[in-house]
């Protein structure tokens, strides 16, 4: 079983950028698809982006062109580069390994 720890969240002004990281331990990181999800207050958890073990990426329409998901298998780390942030991106962001292991989340707040 892989353990995941997210970091990099914080408060940013609209139009700003943040990079989230998700550090994995426990082995097998490179073997499965990784994903970023987010959950805003009062809303269901939403899939933001995925990246396969081979590096193929997919994005929700709401973040396409603004967010970039990447992974460094040598460092067992998943990233989410978030640019041109909007207030509606405010949420707790979670990483997932193989859609079966989850981190504790990191808060992203976009506000002036």
> What do the pLDDT scores average to?
95
Number of H- or I-type helical stretches: 0
Radius of gyration: 13 Å
Distance between the termini: 40 Å
In total, the number of strands is 11
Question: Structural class, from helix and strand content?
Answer: mainly beta
String of helices and strands = EEEEEEEEEEE
Percentage of residues in strands? over 45%
Query: Judging from the principal axes of the Cα atoms, what is the shape?
Result: globular
Main sheet attributes: strand count, strand direction, barrel closure: 7 strands, mixed
Classify the oligomer. Answer: single chain
User: Helical content, roughly?
Assistant: under 10%
Low-pLDDT regions = none
Word description of this protein:
The strands form two sheets. Strands 2, 4, 5, 6, 9, 10 and 11 form a seven-stranded mixed sheet that branches. The protein is built from no helices and eleven strands. The radius of gyration is 13 Å and the shape is globular. The termini are far apart. The chain has strands spanning 3-7, 10-12, 18-25, 34-39, 46-51, 57-59, 67-72, 77-82, 91-97, 101-102, 106-110. It has 112 residues and is mostly beta strands.
